[in-house]
Amino acid sequence: MSYTALARRYRSTGFDDIVGQEPIARTLQAAIKADRVAHAYLFTGTRGVGKTTMARVFAKALNTGSDEVEQAIMTGQDTDVIEIDGASNNSVDDARELIANSVYRPMRGPYKIYIIDEVHMLSTAAFNALLKTMEEPPEHVKFILCTTESHKLPATIQSRCQRYDFRTIPAPIIADRLAFVVKNEGLEAEPELLSMVARLGNGSMRDALSILDRLMASGEKKLTTPMIEQMLGMAPRELVGALIDAFASGEPKAALEAAGELIASGVSPDQLFEALIDRLRDLMVLSACGPETSLVELTGEMRTQEIERAGKFDSPALVHMIALCERVQRSAKSSPNPRALLD
């Protein structure tokens, strides 16, 4: 049997399972209960935050039926819930075919629902062809448009839809979901690793699950932070910490040696600056807001170490160091000798 990626296996199947977009889920549920379902919806937000999943869950709630029907809807294989990839079906002929087929009544449920993913990829002619149908569709037709770039949609299309903006998912919520997945898979993971993966997801649950999938592919029973550093070619936290400690003590020799170790470990100057800026930002926030701040997404021993390290600096110095690193990083990208600028 073929392997199913975590992002697909742990996809939400009902409104109660939705992670990170609960307000939208509640609103759609209330619309169904009050029989105030609009004829067209626009779901917009960055990648991997649940737009297509929400569209399927919404379609399932509208066309609820047997387990077979609901399973078909959630896998994108139902005859009455038609999923269309806007990137590859973007011509005016595709739009006309959709309009022609929309007049036929659904086979199993009360509605024929069109989920158009990446709808911003449709051509101008295709959008124009859809205008009349989207304004006054047959009573059995619903449209759910999903996009990462709503600004590319004509205003005439947007005005015909109820719009819902999907927020990026906070790292702590992603980390909690990752912990559930790890436990369900019969594995263990360091809390620090889950926090790192959640932050690397940049608000996208799918991206975070994809990183976790790669870690699990190693076959290890316990997932640790060194594993993700090696897998993604990240600067080792311990070495970056040693570099920052050298800054704090004002020892040029120790700082140059720490930077040399990082370069020797395979980290490029650009990656080193990225890691350094990220760490200095955490220290700056801890220094300015105190050790209990929720603005720094660190846990356990990792947080304790950074709180202690932040005590060695004051906030203005850290702000200056971040600005300096960012400026040198930009210069290093166009320099024939970035190592000299780094040192």
CATH-derived architecture of the largest domain: 3-Layer(aba) Sandwich
Number of domains: 3
Oligomer class: single chain
Element-by-element helix/strand order: HHEHHEHEHEHEHEHHEHHHHHHH
Q: Quote the CATH topology of the largest domain.
A: Rossmann fold
Kindly estimate the percentage of residues that lie in beta strands according to DSSP.
5-15%
Structural class: alpha/beta
Low-confidence stretches: none
CA radius of gyration = 25 Å
Question: Given the C-alpha coordinates, what overall shape results?
Answer: elongated
DSSP summary, beta strand count = 7
- For the report, how would you describe the main beta sheet? 5 strands, parallel
Arrangement of strands in the largest sheet: 2-3-4-1-5
Average of pLDDT = 89
Our count of helices gives 17
* End-to-end distance: 52 Å
Helix content: 55-70%
- The CATH homologous superfamily of the largest domain is called P-loop containing nucleotide triphosphate hydrolases
Q: Tell me the name of the CATH class of the largest domain.
A: Alpha Beta
